[in-house]
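Objective 1b: paired records.
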Amino acid sequence: MTRLLGLAAVAILAFGLSAVALTSAGPAWSHATLVSSSPADGEQVPVPPSRVSATFNEPMQTQFAAMTLIGPDGGQYGAGEPTVDDTVISVAVRPGGPAGDYTANYRATSADGHVVSGSWTFRVLAAAPTTDNPAPTVPPDTPAPTDTTGGGDTSADGGTPVWPFVAVATAVVAAGALWAVRRQS
């Protein structure tokens, strides 16, 4: 009977520690979300902006950030590499874009290691006045990101996923339970 009570106590302790580990790590499991964009989703702007940006609810890693701007003609109107400034990812816009619907696509890794991607659209009412209008370049076979978020476990800039800590805590509790049971027998 004592052995059964000891085993029950260990099981309750293991369950309690697992519950504490899972509930206390809740905020670390949240994903970064897009909170605003410039231009805003669905906004109509008089001429193409000089830059598009996405603002998130938490800091983003500078590595692996990607942002593209696809024009109404299917051309790529993003100029250069995207920049990351804390919670904002942005990319310059090539001058001379035509009027029409533009789609801004992003894919980035938040500080906690989760990959987020998505897109938004805006409409340019008139082409930018320019003396030369270079033909847009279309990247070959480049799929556009989708509006999904996923759990990535890469963390190259200080972000650490929580799951390894939960796994270690579970293993320690299981080893302690096994040791307690074997010690009593």
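Objective 1b, second protein:
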Amino acid sequence: MTDPTAGEHHFDVRSSRTVYQGAILTLRVDEVEMPGGRVAHREVVEHHGAVAIVARDAVGRIAMVRQYRHPVGRRLLELPAGLLDGGPDETPLSAAQRELAEEADLAADEWRVLVDLVSSPGFTDEALRLYLAEGLHQLDPAERTDEEAEIEVEWLLLDDAVAAVLAGEIVNATSVAGVLAVAAADRTGAGLRDTDAPWRDQPTAHRDRTRR
């Protein structure tokens, strides 16, 4: 496989300024040296990063949640997911376990890394790690507030979830990737990574800012 970092130019950052810093993201503007010597401005959204979970039960159904998403103004059918904002000692796996409990009232005995994503690398460092969780068992209902107070858990057979993706009924990018990745892994027999597998693109810039 070709080295993804190969290339002669280093894209050195000449300067950087913070435009906005909020609870879940920071907007900064970098001056970056382009090939040939030109300096270009690049707007970068720093993000906590996130995890998502394909939780599959013994009969092959996956747990999905339907919740309101204010930026698009409607309820979406999604995989359980959440931000890597649980504090300095919380690992991505621990965050995934927490989110599965908080959003779907589930725990799992078996965890593997399904796929890693960078959501839109043209302007943000946001990255997500998706897990496959199996050996499920039910937990007591979690207390939920705000948008999550109306979360509904829906169980779909994997083939039905794939059909919902292709029909445009599941549009959340993370959920689309997770559903199709599980279907591809099942079809090809591809091995999945252990939960301690390196995560090269795990974002840290916004996290480090908020710890200062």
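Strands lie at 13-21, 25-33, 39-47, 50-55, 61-69, 74-78, 81-83, 106-118, 127-138, 152-157. Residues 1-47 form one domain.
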